[in-house]
Design a protein that fits this description.
Layout lengths: L28 H20 L4 H21 L5 H5 L6 H11 L4 H19 L11 H14 L9 H30 L4 H10 L5
Helix pairs in contact: 1-2, 1-7, 2-4, 2-5, 2-7, 4-5, 5-6, 5-7, 6-7
Length: 206
C-alpha cells in the first residue's frame, strides 16, 4: 500500500448551518490533537500495513464503528446501556449520529459507505476483493474520498482509496467528538442556566 497521508490534507468542513458543528473550531484543537493522537494512532495502526482487501475492509469498518461510537459517547451518557443490545447495529449507530445534526452529514455518509462495502464482503463469500464490489459503491467511495482530499493527492488503487477514506473519516470523527464532548460538558454544567436565561430574555430583531 502506498501511504501518502503526509501530503493528504483532510477537508473536514460541512455546509454552514447544516449541523451544530459544521467546521472544526480553532479553539482547543491543538490540545485535542495532542490528547487524541495516541488513541488515534493505535486505532489506525490496525489497518496501516494491511494488504488483503477483505481484511482491510473488516478491520477498517471496525475502526470506523469505534469512531462513530466515540462520537455518540461524547453526548450520550447512557450509551453503554445500548451498546450490548443485539439490534444496536453499525447502521443504527450512524443513523442516530446523523439524526442529532451535530456534525456534517457527509462525514457520516463516508462512514455509511464503508459500512456498505463491509456488508458486501461479509454477506457474500464470493466477494474477496474490491474488484467484485458493485461499481456504484466504489464510485461513491471515491466521491467521498474526493470531498476529504483537500490537496487532490493522487490515490490510485482501490485498497489505498479505502484506507485513506478510513483514516480521514476516523480523524474527522475524533476531532468533532472532542467538540461535541465540550458542548455536552457545558450543557451539564452549572453555567448553562444563567446563560440560557440571558439568551431567552434577549430581544430578538423584529
Amino acid at each position: 500500500m502506498t501511504d501518502n497521508m503526509a501530503e493528504f490534507a483532510v477537508n473536514s468542513e460541512g455546509p454552514a448551518g447544516e449541523s451544530i458543528f459544521f467546521g472544526l473550531s480553532e479553539w482547543g484543537l491543538g490540545k485535542a490533537a495532542g490528547e487524541l493522537e495516541p488513541k488515534l494512532q493505535q486505532e489506525l495502526s490496525r489497518v496501516h500495513d494491511v494488504k488483503d482487501d477483505r481484511l482491510m475492509v473488516l478491520l477498517g469498518s471496525l475502526v470506523i464503528e469505534n469512531a462513530v461510537e466515540g462520537l455518540l459517547a461524547a453526548f450520550m451518557p447512557g450509551l453503554a446501556e445500548l451498546r450490548d443490545k443485539p439490534d444496536f447495529s453499525f447502521s443504527l449507530k450512524i443513523a442516530v449520529a446523523r439524526a442529532t445534526r451535530l456534525v456534517p452529514s457527509r462525514v457520516l455518509g463516508a462512514a455509511d459507505i464503508i459500512r456498505s462495502i463491509r456488508n458486501e464482503f461479509v454477506h457474500n463469500l464470493e466477494i474477496d476483493s474490491f474488484e467484485r464490489i458493485p461499481p456504484k459503491l466504489l464510485s461513491s467511495m471515491a466521491g467521498h474520498l474526493k470531498e476529504f482530499n483537500r490537496t487532490n493527492v493522487a490515490i490510485t488503487t482501490t485498497l489505498d482509496q479505502f484506507y485513506h477514506l478510513v483514516v480521514a473519516t476516523t480523524m474527522t470523527l475524533y476531532l468533532y467528538a472532542h467538540q461535541v464532548k465540550a458542548l455536552d460538558s457545558y450543557v451539564r454544567s452549572g453555567d448553562l442556566g444563567p446563560h440560557l436565561e440571558q439568551f431567552v430574555g434577549r430581544e430578538r430583531p423584529a
